[in-house]
Fold this protein.
Amino acid sequence: MDDTRFRDYFRLFADISKQIHSNTRTTDILACIVEHITQFLGAKGCIFWILNNSREKIQTQISHGFDYQSLSRVDYPTLMALFDPSAACPISITDARNDERIPDLERLGKHLINAITGLYFNITGPYTGLLAVYFTGNRELDEDELELLTALGEQGAIALEKAFGYDAEMLDLYGQIIQGFALAIEARDPVTHGHSVTVARLAEATARQMGLAEKEADQIRHAAILHDIGKIGTRDQVLDRLGKLSKKEMVQIRQHPVLGADILRPLAFLGDIEPLVRSHHELFNGKGYPEGKKGEQIPLGARIITVCDAFETMIKGRPGMPKKDLASALNALKQGVGSRFDPRVVQTFFDMMKANKNILETGESTTHCLDILTQNMGRLAEQNRIEKKLANPFSGFF
């Protein structure tokens, strides 16, 4: 490498190092890297993908230069076929114009690009970085240029790894804050001590049994922990009389989902769970509160929390509402299918209980109860929609 090129490389690394140390936004760092690569190599453009391999999806991408849509708009499977992760790096595509693996999304755009070089970079956990630079001519990178591309790609991967580590720390802190909120609520009422934590455990397990993504299951768990946070604004005298409230007191207690949502709304990092807290007392038949939402108008997470909240309340009991044994509580959920509860959620809850026999730590066997209760679920849902005088096993709770 001659002196002039060495000085150019040094200035390039100095610029990017400055960006990394002065900027905490990973997207800005990656944008700086792909811009410098494009300019320094005289490329038509450059893309840095962040791939989530466990979910087989493109998490995000940062690009600079000509938007080569035949490359920038590909999905994960096409990207894997184009840049085989098992192949030796770097991966070179010497005739992009006629490569059948590249979708012809834009006739003109595809004909503007000829050579592509791609490199993979390990990040952390399920994440991988993929850096691709593309040219109009028959461009083949020399050894020095490949070293530069590798070094800059590694800088991007390091920045991402640091960012993911920071995110993990923030999520841990976030979880501690949520747990603190829940403890603050339940410290006011020894009868409900542990209620929110148990509901959260059941709701998260139900969400995962349903096959929801990890992020959504986590959101449901957080919402379940905080579902009763609005009771902070409820007088102790009312909380002490749950199960035997006057009409005036019922009006007051039915405001707690709204109060909870109002508390959470200004907190940006809790914004995703605010609708679940607001809707956790809505019923599948539209006769819940505070808005009377019906069926799938109610967020799925709220429908899950509703089932778990009712179940925990029944097996633990409340003043004026004697606790039920496990079989009676499960049967009450079944009786509420299609009216109070989403049939799919109740079925999934039963499946979850079968798969997690010790989730309650009550010592009671759930298998036999659930085998009986899960029979004819669909027929019962239709029956409950027809019957107008169904006994309410949740009197004093809803």
The domain at 3-164 is CATH 3.30.450.40 (Beta-Lactamase). The two ends are 77 Å apart (CA to CA). The chain has 17 helices and five strands. The mean pLDDT is 79.
